[in-house]
Amino acid sequence: MKTNEIDFNNYFKTYPDSKGYFGKYGGSYISPELQVAMDEIAEAYQTICKSRRFISELRRIRKEFQGRPTPISHFERLSDRIGTGVQLYGKREDLNHTGAHKLNHCMGEVLLASFMGKKKVIAETGAGQHGVALATAAAYFGMECDIYMGAVDIRKQAPNVARMKILGAKVIEVTDGLATLKEAVDAAFAAYSREYKDAIYCIGSVVGPHPFPMIVRDFQAVVGFEAREQFIGMTGELPDALVACVGGGSNSIGLFAGFLNDPVDIYGIEPLGRGSRMGDHAASLTYGEEGVMHGFNSIMLKDENGNPAPVYSVASGLDYPSSGPEHAFLRDIGRVKYDVVTDEETVDAFFELSRMEGVIPAIESAHAVAYAIKLARTMGKGSILINLSGRGDKDMDFIIEKYGIR
């Protein structure tokens, strides 16, 4: 199937299908007992979340609590420094309450849990932004909150760990395996399988068994729909290209959702880390193959035994050995191009945006900034809209300790 065979006018009604598939990717590969819980969530989402009461309440929360819509900023000085005439813009999800895009789906998921009568929310986190967002949502609705986080990420992301605890969440350290995001997901799913009657799992990206990739995509789509209207209002036209970082892929799918039916080039940027050798990167869509993990079928990095491969990225939110099934689908049909940047390019972009525009990006977002700078140098004219998915407060101690002040 190719892009010209897809009816993007009805895309969101068609994908995923009733079984949770985007083409051959997605689905639900879990135990029968957990499937009962997934079916309950799917049914609740399709009924509760389509109601006028739910939609009205979510819109109120986004406006009065989250501070949406977030603005678009023209990065004029950085554009001038590149010197090709290409103009860079940023969708400022770093200005969303809690400092990242994650609150977009967390408030929706916990509002759903509240309507379902659940008492606790359970989740994993890598960079800590999803954990902070979910802890915030849980505090807002008065729910218990358990956050599973790898020991490596706890050390790298101390400010966000403190924020979660201040907000009342219980942060549970995961020491298995590489002790990063994959292991945190494993532990959170195991906990949910024991507590699903009273709790709801609030996954942190467009991954996991159906209906999670759909639910998170739909709640994050506000980013793209806002951005499209704002960009036309600012410039009178569409951007020529979109750029967003991709780990699991929630911030990127949120931006892309608003432009899939437009003549806009779309780029999803994965972490090449230290290089292309296995264990030195987390670029699953670039180097991976089809496989099932964490209850869904997508493109994943595998070791010699077919198991999830060890991964690495300077960004804790991107070091995951697979990617959302919708990203795998958009890659296959050619609607989105997926490419990579290295740690070094990312850190350079982190400092460049900070110094030129007074905006310190999350190290995840700096992957998109790095690629947009490279892309701008190849374009003769036009505009690029970057999803600045989060702010860099959480990364400053780690960056200074590892790289110094450049």
Overview of this protein structure:
The protein is 45% helix and 17% strand. The strands form 4 sheets. It has a 6-stranded mixed sheet with strand order 3-4-14-9-10-13, with helices on both faces. A 4-stranded parallel sheet has the order 7-6-5-8, sandwiched between helices. Strands 1-2 form a two-stranded antiparallel ribbon. It has 2 domains: 20-63 and 102-213, Rossmann fold (3-Layer(aba) Sandwich); 67-100 and 221-403, 3-Layer(aba) Sandwich (Rossmann fold), CATH 3.40.50.1100. Helix 6 (129-141) runs parallel beside helix 8 (158-166) and helix 14 crosses helix 15. Strand 11 and strand 12 form a beta hairpin. The chain has helices spanning 11-14, 32-48, 52-66, 76-82, 103-116, 129-141, 151-156, 158-166, 181-195, 212-235, 250-256, 284-287, 325-333, 343-357, 363-376, 396-403; strands at 21-22, 25-26, 72-75, 87-92, 120-125, 144-150, 170-174, 199-201, 241-245, 265-273, 289-293, 296-300, 337-342, 383-388. The longest helix has 24 residues, at 212-235. It contains 16 helices and 14 strands. The N and C termini lie far apart (46 Å). By secondary structure, it is an alpha/beta fold. The mean pLDDT is 96.
